[in-house]
Each structure stands twice: as structure tokens, then as C-alpha cells.
Amino acid sequence: MILYCCADLIFATRIRSTGEAIGVATRPVRSVERLHALLTEETVNALIVDLEAGEIAIDLVAAAARLDPPLPSLAFGPHVNLAALDAAQRAGAAQVMPRGRFAEQLPDLLASLDSATC
Question: Of these four, 42, 70, 92, 113, which has the most CB atoms within 10 Å of its CB?
């Protein structure tokens, strides 16, 4: 399963529907507490965060990076928001990319993240 946090309902729907189309389970997460709860309830392979979700996106990336073993995370955001992309990298995101590339590669990214081990 892949957890995701999106500020944009369209991207959240896109992640969920793409996951369904390729057979990858996805589930939204909107807090660090919920992240920890889902980790005890499900087998979670990765986390995707939309950096436009604000501070919670960085908090989720940092929480995933502190797990033992770390939960792989992918952060995406506007290519012009270099500060947010850099913050995600510093917080421990395994991958950071512009929104356009994320959207373009979504099926491949989901398949790759789903096969990751945590």
C-alpha cells in the first residue's frame, strides 16, 4: 500500500484512480499520528506527499525518514517552489520532483514505490 497526502483534490483522485487501474492500493493520510496508526494496521511500502499541502507534507516526510527502517517517501511540488523541494530533500524524502514530472510518470512511480520494501 502507498499512503499519500495531497492538497489538491484532483491530484488525490488521480493518485487513487491510477493506483486502482494498475492494482496498487493507495490511502490518504493527513497527519503524522494517522501515518503511525496506518503503519500498525497495514503493510505500507511508501509515502507520497504534495508539497503544496504545507507544513504537514514536510512533517510526514520527516516522520517517514525517522522510522526504523525509514519509509521511502516521494515529495512533489511546483518546479518554481525550490524552497519546498529543498525542504523535502532535507527532511529525508527519497525522491523529490516537480509536479509535471510526477504527473507524467505516475503509473511507473506507483508501481515502483509499491514494490519498495520498508
Answer: 113
Closest by alpha carbon to 27, among 59, 61, 58, 3? Answer: 3
Burial of 63 (0-12, 13-18, 19+ CB in 10 A): buried
pLDDT in tens, 75-90: 999 888 888 899 999 9
What is the DSSP secondary structure assignment for residue 94, as one 8-state letter? S
**Grid coordinates of 70:** 525509514
CA-nearest of 38, 64, 49 to 11 is: 49
pLDDT in tens, 17-38: 999 999 999 999 999 999 999 9
Residue ranges and CATH numbers for the domains of the chain are: 2-113 (3.40.50.2300)
Rounded to an integer, what distance in angstroms lies between the CA atom of residue 105 and that of residue 14? 12
pTM higher than 0.90? yes
